[in-house]
């Protein structure tokens, strides 16, 4: 698709890479506007750089509503998480966290495409950044009672407990940036899970 649209498959990638680098050095107060039309594409590298650009906007709190309206966005994020590459998972999970934060509709949209099923592997990652951002996303998803049983069955809840034991007994997760300490996410998740009778019964079985 990128070849048909631009005549050169590498051109949109180069443009997106340049925009990412430009936005990184912008101040938070800079007025930035962009319309991305590369949300439904077959080129995963182009999807990655699109997400990379969105990440820089997301952490500045810019144009989030616009991005959330992009058809196929959650599906693209789900595909990127399936790639099981640490640097990709970090970027996608961090972007996702800012997008699902306090947005029930978008949380459900992300769950409906199967992103929740990617979390167990992310929570079990050897990379602390991936673990932290997966934990922060799980914290948003767990607010939906209909997902809690799947959260247990998929093994994600067990991974949260493992992270909790590690954080409390040895050392905190090493992350470059964070919204809340990992232990606060863990405590919130445990409170919500243990407060759910059906989910708790399933876990105990």
Describe the structure.
By secondary structure, the protein is an all-alpha fold. It is 66% helix and 0% strand. It has helices at residues 2-6, 11-24, 44-58, 64-68, 73-82, 86-100, 104-112, 119-123, 128-141, 145-153, 156-169, 182-194, 197-204. Helix 2 (11-24) runs parallel beside helix 3 (44-58), helix 3 (44-58) packs across helix 6 and helix 9 packs parallel to helix 12 (182-194). The termini are far apart.
Summarize the structure.
This protein has helices at residues 2-6, 11-24, 44-58, 64-68, 73-82, 86-100, 104-112, 119-123, 128-141, 145-153, 156-169, 182-194, 197-204. By secondary structure, it is mainly alpha-helical. Helix 6 runs parallel beside helix 9 (128-141).
Fold blueprint:
Elements: H1 2-6, H2 11-24, H3 44-58, H4 64-68, H5 73-82, H6 86-100, H7 104-112, H8 119-123, H9 128-141, H10 145-153, H11 156-169, H12 182-194, H13 197-204
Helix pairs in contact: 2-3, 3-5, 3-6, 6-9, 9-12, 10-13, 11-12
InterPro entries: ARM-like (IPR011989), ARM-type_fold (IPR016024)
- CATH topology heading: Leucine-rich Repeat Variant
CATH homologous superfamily identity: Leucine-rich Repeat Variant
How large a portion of the residues is in β-strands, by DSSP E?
A: under 5%
Major sheet summary line: none
Gross morphology is globular
Share of helical residues: 55-70%
Structural class, from helix and strand content? mainly alpha
Radius of gyration: 18 Å
The arrangement of helices and strands along the chain is: HHHHHHHHHHHHH
CATH architecture: Alpha Horseshoe
């Amino acid at each position: 698709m990128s070849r048909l649209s631009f005549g050169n498959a590498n051109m949109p990638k180069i443009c997106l890479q340049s925009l990412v680098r430009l936005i990184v050095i912008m101040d938070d107060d800079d007025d930035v506007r962009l319309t991305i039309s590369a949300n439904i594409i077959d080129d995963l590298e182009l999807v990655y750089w699109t997400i990379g650009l969105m990440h820089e906007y997301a952490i500045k709190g810019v144009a989030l509503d616009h991005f959330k309206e992009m058809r196929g966005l959650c599906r693209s994020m789900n595909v990127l998480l399936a790639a099981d590459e640490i640097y990709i998972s970090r970027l996608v999970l961090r972007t996702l966290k800012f997008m699902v934060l306090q947005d029930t509709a978008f949380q459900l949209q992300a769950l409906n495409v199967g992103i929740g099923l990617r979390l167990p592997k992310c929570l079990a990652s050897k990379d602390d950044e991936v673990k932290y951002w997966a934990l922060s996303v799980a914290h948003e998803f767990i607010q939906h009672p209909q997902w809690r049983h799947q959260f247990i069955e998929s093994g994600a809840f067990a991974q949260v407990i493992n992270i909790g034991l590690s954080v409390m007994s040895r050392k905190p997760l090493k992350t470059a940036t964070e919204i809340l300490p990992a232990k606060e996410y863990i405590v919130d998740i445990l409170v919500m899970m243990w407060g759910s009778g059906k989910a708790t019964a399933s876990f105990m079985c």
